[in-house]
Design goal:
By secondary structure, this protein is α/β, with parallel strands linked by helices. The protein contains 17 helices and 16 strands. One of its GO terms (molecular function) is hydrolase activity.
């Protein structure tokens, strides 16, 4: 495990200044040099992209077949021979790893994460991708350019838990790359949960070019230290000081009964545990407990004091959030970590928090920066920049007024001036909630707009990108989680800003784990 990297660069982080947030870049990011000669245009408005990702709509309308498919995959893995309990063992009590989520668009926003990630975590022992390794449909053919190439210089192994997009090809690409399983787990005569309609609509996976994947692995991640085969789509990494549990939540955010029994089994015992999941259990000030087929929820397992979970980290939502939730006499850190490369989900639409005290809540980007960025996007799209565009300072003031909170970044205003009517109008139109609720008026689509349009609107190729990743350091006594910002600015790549940090004790006062 390496030395301390808690200090932020000279510009600080976004909580300290606009420069720390990346609004004024002094040098371009070196990630431009990493890009392929031709960066493929990625747009959710393209009919082919929509058609390739149609399984999300089919699953939500007619039922999610992920549980049935997963059972067949796990049976194939078990028949082949897989570690007991789907567990990988590490002997060191002290170790570090990187965690990033929702990575694989293959464009500038994904590559912008790579230099700061390597600089902050080149000495870590392994990396985990939490959700949506490949967009739009998890195809095996996309892995060379959206997985192997971007992370070719990361020296350790990479593990993953699948997200809903990885499931759109029946998880075939994911299982081939991470589990070395080439089987198609769809039943030969599968008709879908409700019969003929989903059978006709469901997109079956394309062919896997094993030679091309082998070439990409050999060319980009062929070093022995980079090779790893995980036991399955769900797994544990067991160490003397911490058990890391990764679960597969399919398309709609549930787990099957077999995985539920496995999760209860690996969650037993006094060893501290960290959950990694494709969908977060706390997000946007709401609880998403993750139902288990046959009864119960993942959140109930995490909250049970007999299981000794200290944190639960999920991808799927493309920003960073942290909720320190008190459960009985302990605190569980619920974290959202989906800022690894895909378009940014807004944070300014998050209401004043009720799950935890607002002062204890953390998010990145800050709500004011999120509002400022979206105001510029809408000003450009609607060709009304004079109306919509808010500076970060104007946006921060509007958020302060609408939510009734003290923003994380102070401008030294003392008694903060009331924002302009224009700023308040834009904040209302772009979805900043009012403290205490109140009657909803006209709002432009920011949060509830279908992803195929929202992602196009919220994707941009110029700093600040507002992406992020986690570095997690573990000793026998504590677990330390740090969120590092990715702005895309060259002066913030070598020493990326640390936006949030929390240290969690792994031993009780008596010294027992």
């Amino acid at each position: 495990m390496s030395g301390d990297r808690s200090a932020s660069p000279a510009s600080g982080n976004s909580r300290q200044s606009e420069a720390g947030a990346g609004w004024s870049c002094r040098t371009p990011g070196s990630f431009e040099d990493l890009l392929p000669e031709r960066v493929p245009a990625f747009s959710w408005r393209r009919p082919l992209v929509l058609w390739r990702s149609r399984n999300d709509v089919v699953a939500h309308l007619f039922g999610d077949p992920s549980n049935a498919i997963r059972r067949r995959c796990v049976a194939a893995l078990t028949e082949r021979g897989t570690p007991a309990g789907f567990t990988m063992h590490r002997q060191a009590a002290e170790f570090s790893f990187l965690l990033t989520g929702d990575t694989g668009e293959g464009d500038r926003s994904q590559y912008a994460v790579v230099p700061p990630l390597l600089n902050a975590g080149a000495d870590t022992d392994f990396m985990v991708i939490a959700s949506d390794v490949i967009y739009p449909a998890g195809d095996a053919a996309d892995y060379p350019e959206k997985f192997f190439r971007p992370y070719r210089d990361y020296p350790g192994p990479i593990y993953a838990v699948p997200g809903n997009h990885d499931w759109y090809d029946g998880l075939r690409g994911f299982l081939h790359v991470f589990c070395d399983l080439t089987a198609d787990c769809l039943p030969d005569r599968w008709q879908g949960p409700l019969g003929l309609v989903p059978r006709l609509l469901w997109r079956r996976p394309g062919a896997v070019d094993e030679a091309e994947l082998a070439r990409a692995r050999r060319e980009h991640r062929g070093a022995p230290a980079q090779r790893a085969t995980q036991p399955g789509p769900y797994w544990t990494i067991d160490t003397p000081s911490l058990r890391i549990v990764g679960i597969d939540t399919g398309i709609t955010g549930t787990i099957d009964a077999d995985q539920g029994r496995w999760l209860r089994g690996v969650s037993a015992g006094p060893k501290p545990k960290l959950l990694i999941t494709g969908k977060p259990l706390r997000v946007d000030d709401r609880v998403r407990p993750c139902p288990i087929e046959g009864g119960g929820t993942v959140d109930e397992i995490v909250a049970d004091p007999a299981h000794h979970y200290v944190a639960a980290i999920g991808g799927d939502i493309h920003n960073y959030q942290r909720y320190p939730v008190r459960v009985g006499d302990r605190v569980i850190q619920y974290v959202v970590a989906g800022g690894g490369g895909a378009f940014m989900h807004a944070t300014h639409t998050i209401p004043r928090t009720r799950l935890v005290d607002e002062d204890a809540f953390r998010c990145y980007p800050l709500r004011g920066d999120s509002l400022s960025r979206y105001s510029r996007l809408y000003g450009r799209v609607l060709r009304l920049p004079g109306l919509f565009e808010l500076t970060p300072r104007e946006a921060t003031a509007a958020v302060r007024h609408r939510l009734g909170i003290t923003p994380a970044r102070s401008y030294g205003d003392g008694e903060a001036p009331r924002p302009s009517r224009r700023a308040l109008l834009v904040a209302a139109l772009l979805g900043v909630p009012r403290a205490g609720g109140g009657r909803r008026r006209l709002r432009l689509p920011v949060k509830r707009l279908p992803q195929r349009f929202r992602s196009e609107l919220a994707d941009w190729d110029r700093p600040p990108f507002f992406k992020s990743f986690l570095r997690i350091d573990v000793t026998g006594a504590e677990l330390r989680i740090r969120c590092f910002a990715v702005t895309g600015c060259g002066d913030q790549e070598t020493d990326p800003p640390c936006e949030d940090e929390v240290t969690i004790p792994l031993r009780s006062p008596s010294g027992d784990t």
